[in-house]
Each structure stands twice: as structure tokens, then as C-alpha cells.
Amino acid sequence: AVVSTQSGHYGRDHDEKLRKKNARSSHKASMKAKKLHGLKAKLYNKKRHAEKIQMKKAIKMHEEKQTKAKDADNVQEGAVPAYLLDRETQTRAKVLSNMVKQKRKEKAGKWTVPIPKVKAVGEDEVFKVLATGKRRKKTWKRMVTKVTFVGEEFTRKPPKYERFIRPMGLRFKKAHVTHPELKATFCLPMIGVKKNPNSPMYTQLGVITKGTVIEVNVSELGLVTTGGKVVWGKYAQVTNHPENDGCINAVLLV
Asked: Between 91 and 180, where is the model more confident?
């Protein structure tokens, strides 16, 4: 039933075998990553890390997240001048302008916040020392014990070389944000951590404690600037202890 492969023909199950081989390749790669030691392991993991980032970029490119979409229904009668052709035939899905991202306040690094002073949170409270190595003598790894925000584009380093571990159970993506003027609370997706008053390192790691200024996506609230543009991102200050409550409560900085 099988034709000779020497003549350039393949067996009937060639495609199936190839598919299975490709399916196994990821398991083989992870097994290899576990077995390698020393410099070879470092080089291999660096290569895998780069591949993962490239793969994430490719997936993101393929996702259809168009910022502009043609509005087919809105067709004007009569001739339209050339300079108006692009203007009203497009509806923006997400407008990334945020009142020039509150430029002046950002430059100064100061906001009028609901909680101006917060109790300092020490590193011994935020980080738990992890003992690693065969004899558990290496103590350079740290586990974050507070709530964190990790962006979608984050690619984790190989676990062996990861210094700061942010547990999945403490990674939050949404916050309960109260609008002080509307007196209403909305569950909004977070964009990032703008400033943690305790330490710049906490800001970099995305650690969220009481008093932290976070950026939230307010596009669903329909806020509009004086120029008529939709506000996309706005800052809010965390008013509770998220690690105790299991949720993030914040007040919008208007």
C-alpha cells in the first residue's frame, strides 16, 4: 500500500505524521528546556523568549483591531468636495487621544488626589523571599504578595531566571471606579499603573496598594473633551487594600 519514498512519493499517512510531529515539537522544546543546564540553558531560554515575543506580535497583528472602520450606511446626497471625502465616512472605534494625556499634570507628576498621604509599605511586606537551588541556599528570588497589574504584551522570562514572580491569582485586569460627580461606580478595564507612591520599583512591577494612581479605560463612559474628542484613558486613585478585599476600588481623578 505504501509507495517507495525513493521515487519522490510519500506514504498515505505522511501528512498525518507531519501534523503529529509538529504538535509534539512544543512538548519536545519544553522538555529540552527542563533538561539543559548552565550556559546552554541560558542561550536556549533566551532564544525561546525571543520566539515567544515574535509569536505574540504576529498574533496581535492578525487580530483585527482596526481603529478606523468605513461607515457604509452614511452616504451623503450630492457632490462632496475632495477635502471632505475622508471626514464623515469613517467612524473611529477607539480614539487614543486623552486630552493630551493630561500633559501638564503628568510633567509635574502631581494630581489632586482623594488620598494625599498613605502609610508606607516596606519591601519586606511586598516581597516574600523564595529559597531556590538544590540545597535551598539561593535567596535572590522574590514573590510579590500584593495585587499586581500585568499588561497583555508581557512575556514571562524562563521561570529559572525570573527574579520577581507575580502570582496569577493576584493579577487583576479590572477595577471598580467611582465617578465623584456622577456618584456612580463602573467596572472598567485597567490600562496600566501610573504611580505607586511607595516606590518607583513597585510602579515598574505594577504593584497596586492603597493610594496608587492607575490608568483605566473610560471609553464606555462616553466622556468627551471640550474639542469633541472621546476620552479613552483616565487616571484613578485606589482607595482600598486590594489584597485584603479581593477587588480594586478607585476614585476617578476628574
From this structure: 180
